[in-house]
Amino acid sequence: MFRVKATNSDAVITSFEIEGKKDGESEVRIYTRQDDYQDHVEDSAGWVKVFDKKVQVSKNERTNLELLDEKVTIPAGSTHSFYVFSKKNMLYKKGNGNRGAFDGDGVLTMMEGIGTKKLFEEPTGSGKFSGGIRYVVFDLISLP
Q1: Is 99 part of any domain?
Q2: Is 80:3 a contact under the CB 8 Å cutoff?
Q3: What are phi and psi of 38, to 5 degrees?
Q4: Cβ count near 48 (within 10 Å)
Q5: Is 9 exposed, middle or buried (0-12, 13-18, 19+ CB in 10 A)?
Q6: In Å, how far from its chain's centre is CA 56?
Q7: Domain count of the chain?
Q8: What is the CATH number of the domain that holds 125?
Q9: 4 burial class (0-12, 13-18, 19+ CB within 10 angstroms)?
Q10: Cα(13)–Cα(63) distance, rounded to whole angstroms?
Q11: pLDDT in tens for each of the 144 residues of the chain?
C-alpha cells in the first residue's frame, strides 16, 4: 500500500508495472481509495478493485500489467492510495518508515508505504513500490 499525489495536473492512472521476484505466474490485484490508506490497512471496505488477473512475470524485470479494469483519476493536488498485491511474486524495496515522498516526475509523487504478506492483513513493514505507474495528463486549454 502506498500513496500517490498528483502535483500540478490531473492525472489518469491507466496501468502499473511490477517487478518480479522470480519467473512465473502470479495473481495480481490492485485496489485504490481516495486519500490515505493508514486507517484502512486491514479492512477492504472503501477500497475499489481496479485490477484482478493472473500475470506472467520475470525475475528482476518489469512487467506491464496492461490496462486497469477501471482507470483512476487523481485531481491536481489530491492524493490516492493504491494497494498493489501479488500473491507471491512481486519485489518492493525496504522503506525507512517515514511515509514521505521517495520518487516523482513533476506530475506524480510517490510516497513510501507498507508491505503485507496476505491481502488486507497486518503489515510486515515499510516499503517503497518497485515498479512503475502509467498515466496520462489532461490539461484544459481555454480559447478566446
Answers
A1: yes
A2: yes
A3: -45, -45
A4: 13
A5: middle
A6: 18
A7: 1
A8: 2.60.120.820
A9: buried
A10: 16
A11: 999 999 989 999 999 999 988 899 989 999 999 999 988 999 999 999 999 999 999 888 999 998 999 999 999 999 999 999 998 778 888 888 888 888 889 899 999 999 888 999 999 899 999 899 999 997 666 666
CB crowding 100-123: b at 16 or more within 10 Å, else e? eebeeeebbbbbbbbbbeeebeee
Torsion of CA 84, 65, 49, 119, to 10 degrees: -40
Q: Is residue 141 part of a domain?
A: no
Q: Which domain holds residue 37?
A: 2-134
**111 with 3: CB under 8 angstroms?**
yes
Give the position of cell 489532461: 138
Q: What is the pTM of this model?
A: 0.90
Residue 12 inside a domain? The answer is yes
Residue 116 domain-assigned (yes or no)? yes
